[in-house]
Amino acid sequence: DKGNYRHYMAKEIHEQPEVIGHTLSRYLDLGAKKAKLPDGAAIDFSKLTRLVISACGTAFYAGLIGKYWFERYARLPVEIDIASEFRYRELPVSEGELALFISQSGETADTLASLRYCRQHGLTIGAVVNVPESTIAREADVVFPTIAGPEIGVASTKAFTCQLAVLASLAILAGRQRGHLSDAQEAELVGALAEAPGRAVQALKLEAQIERLAPSLARAKDLLYLGRSTNYPLALEGALKLKELSYIHAEGYAAGELKHGPIALIEENIPVIVIAPHDSIYEKTVSNMQEVAARGGRILLVTDDKGGEASGLGHKDRIVLPEMPEILSPIVYAIPIQLIAYHTAVFMGTDVDQPRNLAKSVTVE
Ligand code: M6R
């Protein structure tokens, strides 16, 4: 049931404040200001030597963001790869490592094969899944559920932000267990994460503005998305979403990688979407953005008030979110990124819920 929405995807984008809240309630103890494990999950991060993550598509990008969090907040080294590569590359693994598989459907063939590889090699298996009765959930030792509810649109939206909510919570928990976060630091991060649903509501208010940008984006043949740190995987996610929904070619890049090749593409007909909240890495991203501007590139900056002012660009093409703690930005900035792809595709008249050549669940390799 699409309710009052035109597409399942629109409904699922708008459900995010609620389902992120449901998911966080399983992983955060707001009274104690601590991260917790969901019911039935037992895992000790303190003695782990490494975390190995594998997934496909959007779930893989959630894992990439998780890598930054586990390394930053828990000093836990992370190895991550897309499942179609992971399953055949013969990664040396050893006991004392946790393997984590991320999947909305819990049925993705490559992800399942990667899980079985790690099982054969004696690793503990964790699964971040949205479908609790799925094969991946059943074959895992520990299940970390996302409480996104059924996701019908082929493009993953609410499952992605719920995966991020789970990974951020687990990284905080791991940080405490491994002695890298003080009680005060944990309380601050938990308090920040708890703001996600409210921030998501604010992000959804940008929809009308984003809809107005769609016609000009739809004229492009190519688009670039740039970001750094945790917003680099979000740039990859933005490009994937736009490709699968609107069939416009797009690539995501780490902003710092621009001058190693892709800057040669810059001209006014290739819009560049820069994801840059005013955080610890903002200055670096903005200097990459100015290189684009200097070469006549058309920029759409997704930022906050401070970031907008410090950018040196005009007000024109700017999507402005409220300022928020750094841990929140990939979760909340995912929403305008989804809306850009959604409205561009709607404007172009493609089949948003069922894009050509794609299946919701990829059960063959
Ligand atoms: O069900 P899964 O999370 O394992 O699916 C993984 C990918 O197939 C999926 O995220 C795909 O990339 C989406 N269509 C992206 O919107």
From TrEMBL:
The active site is at K360. Catalyzes the first step in hexosamine metabolism, converting fructose-6P into glucosamine-6P using glutamine as a nitrogen source. Its main location: cytoplasm. It is found in: Cytoplasm. Homodimer. This is Glutamine--fructose-6-phosphate aminotransferase [isomerizing]. Its EC number is 2.6.1.16. The keyword Transferase applies. It catalyses: D-fructose 6-phosphate + L-glutamine = D-glucosamine 6-phosphate + L-glutamate. The keyword Transferase applies. It comes from the Bacteria. One of its GO terms (molecular function) is glutamine-fructose-6-phosphate transaminase (isomerizing) activity. It comes from Polymorphum gilvum (strain LMG 25793 / CGMCC 1.9160 / SL003B-26A1).
